[in-house]
Amino acid sequence: MKRDRHSLFLASRARDRVTLSDPDFETVAVAMPFEVFPPIAVIADAHVHDPAADFGFPGAAQTGGLSVRPLAEAARSTRVFNESLQAFRTALDDVAARGIRHVVLLGDYTDDGQIATTAAVAAILEDYGTRHGIAFFALPGNHDIFGDAGRHRTKRFLDADGSSAVVTSHPVTDVHDPLPAGIPRDLPVTVSPSMFCPGYPDGLIPLREHGYFPQNGYLHWETPFGPRGETHERMFIAVSDSGETCRPLMEASYLVEPVEGLWLLMIDANVFVPLDGSDDWVDSTSAGWNAMLVHKRHVISWMKDVGARAARRGKRLVAFSHYPALDPLDGTRAAEIALLGPTATSGRIPDDAVGEAFIEAGISLHFSGHLHVNDTARMRRGERAFVNVAVPSLAGFPPAYKILTLRAGAAEIETVSLGDMPMDAAIGALYAAEVRRTNVQTGGMAEATRYGAFLSAHIGHLAWRRHLKREWPAALAALLRAATLGDLARLAVRPVVPMDVAVAMLAVAPGPPRSQETNGPEALSAIAFLGDWYRLRMGSDLGATAISPQRMRFYDRLSALYLAQAWPDGSAQSGIAAMLSMFEAYRSGLPAIDFRIDLLSGEITEM
What residue numbers bound the domain in which 331 lies? Predict the structure, then answer.
């Protein structure tokens, strides 16, 4: 018989429930002891891949002990791989140099949850904890863990001559059967258990000292089920969408008080839903907070209880999870669907009900990752406000982490860029061998000497090699490939034409020949605008720093031409106008680099 998810959860906990308001669980209410709390570094989506880790890759014997992912794979992925370890250490070195002693990891701290990778991350955290006294508080992301039993992973690594081989955890006789699409079947294959991604709770155990379980130094620690950390005390019943399949799963959320008066609400927002008729789970990647409201209502109830207790006891409460709780793309979801149709990103944008749930819980500030976006979003309901700070990835553009300093009635946010980090020469040598052997096109990535330039080239390349092919309407994509920026400006003052007609016009009467930007933005391909569109989309005002002032002035001109009037649906001009409207929304959003949030009024000002 089908049963309501919440009823199933309540029944599963009734036997030995701990009531959070019980006297033996309450702590004494105290006034906040700090006018300024110690700063907290917030790192999202580090996606650490340790090239020196042992993945069982035989070719490492000829590559100086390195297991390096092909540059070709990074060139078509939303993140890079081999630079992530150096970026993570660079961020932590900066954290240590600033004297910061508390670091929140917002999930996806591993490449794909591989056993060897998680062990490498755990070793790094132990090292910085021992040498610098840094306390880490981790949350799982969709790449760190999978369901209750885990899943197999398969990756390619570069040999010294630029060729590649495959390492997989899949233990079948014919190891070519489980290879993901896109990996050639004629590559050498090695089976290694170190590539496996565990599930709950096994995937959390290597980081057990970093928030997931109570530690002696914590002033307070609890889960939605009480103060006990044993995994069997933290189980809930996950229910399939049909209500037919019920399966126990561990809940990794916790509340911790690392210094007196400061509560960090660490929410495990992974939502794994059982598949009917299978032992498998629905992937959590696209679920996020919309699914939390349906499948993890026990966490929502707990959030309200925590918020009420924090207010009653005078605690400063900040929430963290892997997934955004407000739209981190400046309210452009409807415009994106109108322009591109439903996309992977638009499907991951939270509904307004999510922000309203935070406001109802008395939570005013939340930090998120997942979408690799640098942005600030705010919701107001009456006199109450809720702010979501989206933290960018260390493995994507723009590479940065954030520092939170809580003051009386305010939060100050500083964004620290890793763009000046030098590229690794040993990894670069393997890239060069790959390029020589395969002639792979990487849009300038292989020539970059600094991490910021590498990732700027990466997102520009990704814009037309991945996004334009997968998500953009064919007619608009053809127009962007055919046109220069000057063509777009001229199109705005010509009669309205359908998209395909505009492409045909350019083929018959093209504009001036294309050249480098030294001859002005007008001669650049419109694909250059697409790259800048994505730089601004992912980085907001931090992304704008990677776009030249000359180009920005030209985009101002285009916006003035296209946004001064309404264009008929289906016209070439309407498509370009929609792009520019979203571009301007990305430009004009709330401050997202260094800013101050008034936690009472919700006002946000640049610092």
Answer: 5-417
